[in-house]
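re: ur question from the group chat, yeah i did fold both. here u go
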Amino acid sequence: MALIDIVSRRSRLDRQFDQLRRMEEAGQLKAATGSRFIRKFLNNRLAVVGLVIFTIILLASILAPLLTPWNPTEINLRAINKPPSWEHWFGTDKTGRDVFARVLYGGRISILVGLGSALVSALIGVIIGCYAGYVGGWVDAVAMRVSEAIMAFPEIILVLVLVSILGQSLFNIMAIFILGGWCGIYRLVRAQMLSLREEEYVQALRSFGLNRALISFKHMLPNALGPVMVNITLSTAAFILQEAGLSFLGLGVPLAIPTWGNILNVAQDLTVLQRNWWLWLPVGTFISLFVLSVNFIGDGLRDASDPTQQG
């Protein structure tokens, strides 16, 4: 029975190869054009869905003044805890503020915190990891010890210390995320550079007398950017969740600034969870969809940049 299955598989493959050969001889097969990276990414359905969701939420947050006439900070005591309606799509909160407007405007701050912190962390980590990983010696040793010292401290301790010293602000939260976020990307880029610096083309460049910075940043770094892009997407999702968690606990962005975490802050009351579901369900859905979309994009970038996955 197993022999029959093998023979049937071979005959099926033979027919497929014969069909491809006939199509090639007839000129019906066209050579693939464009970037292979983009083709691989677009072939990943989840990645495309994630990109669409990411784009919709991002554009909705940017174009918030065009999508809602309400001010996210305007108090209306005549419309307290109103359920969703045609006037207020997501209802209103305990001070009469429109929840839909707060979700859209809050997305601006939350996405800024997540994406901005991830990009700055990646920039710092790539610069330090690229040069230190190629040069080695005391530069690499110092950078490694500093990263280990920072990663040894729990992030909640850094939050409490900085907030108690400088107070709550958007800048402080981003500074905390950047301070702890560059270490992981630094170690990732450093590992890539340690493997690349033994390649023959690097040895040839070194023999021509090129300086270290030119070799590491111009010729070696482009070959290590694939994992970095994936890490940026994962860091963005993680920072958004951390901001939401810190703001939910009252340690993040000041409550006067609408963010997804600050909107969820009202869900600490059990009565809100049971009766006023519109105060937490829409923003929770937005956070979940955005984080999932970023993770899907990261998976697509990982598969598209992996040489073993290229077809």
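okk and heres the other one u asked abt
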Amino acid sequence: MGKIFNRLEEWIVVIVLSIMSTIAFVNILSRGFANYSFSFTEEITVNLFVLLTFVGTAIGVRKYAHLGFTLIYDKGNLLLKNIITILVGIMMMLLFFILLYFGMKMVQYQMDMGQKTPSLGWPQWWFSMSMPIGALFCLIRSIQVTIVEFRQQNEKGEQLL
């Protein structure tokens, strides 16, 4: 299951980044050669960038690539490390749960109102789904990383005793 989820995240990033790059390249060519700009490409690119950011964040959480100040953690005993790990994990989960919840409410509102994108006239919720989907990926990864980190530091603690 873990490898499938890893691959799914990576494929989403590859596909979204490829689409964004292609759209930007075509738009640059059309401006340079035809003196014409496709205005709708900005709408697609900006909305895909949101998805890319969230899924990239989930990959960053999975790979422990997020920024952190670890002086207190590094100097602390096992109890303090456990407290910090749980506290940080809870805060991350809370943040992504809130983004997931309000993202779903936003999508539901857009569906109920029949809101369309300005340039293309597509349903806005198609693009807005990137927020709750990305937040769900981040929430899952936050839970996973917190459990793994907690187990690893307690295994190390047992080996020291």
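fwiw on the second one: Residues 78-113 form the longest helix (36 residues). The CA atoms of residues 51 and 131 lie 7 Å apart. idk if thats what u expected
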